[in-house]
Design goal:
The protein has about 300 residues and is an alpha+beta fold. Helices cover about 35% and strands about 20% of the residues. The structure holds adenosine-5'-diphosphate and magnesium ion.
Length: about 300
């Protein structure tokens, strides 16, 4: 445990930004800022505009706690700029942030590493949609490669729905793919430094954990401890750790997983800057692990001390 909070120097909690997740990020940022202040860190909130680099330099910040969700903050661009300025930051570096922002690139790396992720087909206006259905079976999930928060995604249960689902997703990103639907349970597993936190099982009262279930509905149930037997729990923790590491992710993050009715786990995606509000998933797993929100915030900040980010 680090007790001397002065070693972090003057810390900017960079939040907000210009991505679709701006409001969620502001909530996460406020909570993190309060947690760090409670522990005695010299932390300050910075609402990131396009002039964020000027602000960081002008105010002589020595370190960044990056809590920007989505494009601009979670995708490697801020990370690259901070590397140039030699300002250390929390979490993953340029490459892993950029890869995980794109679900398709992430799946390609997992596939290339022999890790299980549901079968997929890239969709274009020229796709033979019937052939895609033949290959993947039904249902499938249609996803824009680079959106978050379930935006533009649809579950397709009948062949003729695939084209309209593609057209909807294509409004959000130039790259769209269809993925085999996994019938079963959903888990998410948080990484904190070298540790794998206790997995959470999510039970949405909807077809899938969509935007409504994430941010609006009160009906989503979270189970932590997740109820898996020890062998399956170990398998899930080992798989998610490997999935995180092969992409080169660092510091902290969250891996989403489905488990089919045969008990096989399938990797879905990685979030390198997951939500940090009071009722977010990583703080929930940390609490089960014996870490308060403030403790967790300091542990994440410690990831900026490691080589690999800009130092
Ligand atoms: N292949 C799949 N099979 C079944 N459900 C899925 C599949 N992929 C995603 N989902 C459901 O959709 C939700 C959102 O998908 P995800 O890829 O994690 O996108 P994001 O969290 O960025 O919106 C998941 O939490 C899960 O409930
Ligand atoms: Mg997800």
């Amino acid at each position: 445990m680090i007790r001397d909070m002065t070693q972090f120097g003057k810390v900017a909690v960079v939040m907000g930004g210009w991505a679709a997740e701006r409001e969620v990020s502001l909530n996460s940022g406020k909570a993190v800022l309060a947690g760090l202040l409670k522990k005695g860190v010299d932390a300050h909130g910075v609402d990131a505009g396009r002039d964020v680099l000027d602000v960081l330099r002008r105010e002589n910040y020595q370190r960044v706690f990056n809590i920007l969700h989505g494009r601009g903050g979670e995708d490697g661009t801020l990370q690259g700029a901070l590397d140039v300025l030699q300002i250390p930051y929390t979490g993953s570096g340029v490459m892993a942030s950029a890869i995980t922002m794109d679900k398709l690139m992430t799946k390609r790396i997992w596939t290339g590493s022999g890790l299980p992720t549901p079968a997929f087909e890239i969709l274009t206006p020229e796709s033979d949609f019937e052939e895609v259905v033949e290959k993947l079976g039904l249902p499938v999930m249609v996803k824009p490669a680079q959106e978050g928060s379930s935006i533009g995604m649809s579950k397709v249960t009948e062949a003729q729905q695939l084209k309209p689902a593609f057209e909807k997703a294509a409004q959000y990103d130039a790259v769209v793919f269809a993925e085999q639907w996994i019938i079963g349970e959903e888990y998410t597993v948080a990484m904190l430094g070298e540790e794998v936190l206790p997995p959470i099982r999510l039970q949405a009262n909807a077809d899938f954990y969509d935007y409504e279930a994430k941010y609006v509905s009160e009906d989503t149930q979270y189970h932590c401890p997740c109820g898996l037997d020890e062998q399956s729990l170990n398998a899930l923790q080992t798989l998610t750790r490997t999935a995180f590491d092969v992409i080169g992710c660092k510091g902290w993050g969250r891996v989403d997983v489905m488990r089919d009715n045969m008990g096989t786990f399938w990797l879905i995606e990685v979030n390198t800057v997951p939500g940090m509000t009071d009722h977010s998933l990583v703080p929930m797993a940390a609490r089960q692990h014996g870490l308060s929100f403030a403790d967790l915030s300091v542990e994440i900040l410690k990831s900026s001390l490691q080589a690999g980010s800009a130092e």
